[in-house]
Amino acid sequence: MKIERNKVVAFHYTLRQVGGESLEQSDPARPELYLHGHNNILLAMERAFEGREAGDSFTIELAPKDAYGEIKPERKVRVSLKHIVQPKQSLRAGARVQVQTKEGTIDARVIKVGKFNIDVDTNHPLAGMSLSFDIEIADVRDATDEELAHRHAHGVGGHEH
Ligand code: ZN
Predict the structure, then answer these.
(1) What are the average pLDDT values for consecutive 10-residue runs of the chain, which has 161 residues?
(2) Rounded to the nearest whole angstrom, what is the distance from the C-alpha of residue 112 to the centroid of ligand 1?
(3) Ligand 1 centre from 155 Cα, in Å?
(4) Least C-beta-crowded within 10 Å: which of 16, 54, 73, 83?
């Protein structure tokens, strides 16, 4: 069965920065699961998956613009310490924190901590990187009516609710 819109795809991946070390990989016992054609994974990845079948292995290289975008200087901001969620944890440079904003809570990385303010970087951790994914397609199946209604895959590796 080939990957096309409304198929549920299970796949293994190893993610690395192009020319660099592995950044993360899927659990060998628990492939990632997604519903194809509904913006559940990066668009450039979805295009590369189109037409593949279970057992196919391939590598995708994505420029930052096709992955998590370029680093935006304006995303390095100074905020009041009171906007940091759970500031009890040690706030030191490099720590991951959550910042409350008008648009909701966002993930950030601490740059510098002051007495009342904190400088944080809200760029995606993979922003600015050219990424390489080693992909192995584990399974392709038809989506259920419920999955189509929810626009995502259900089950282990997908949404479990
Ligand atoms: Zn659902």
Answers:
(1) 98 93 91 96 96 98 95 94 79 90 91 94 93 97 97 92 86
(2) 40
(3) 9
(4) 73
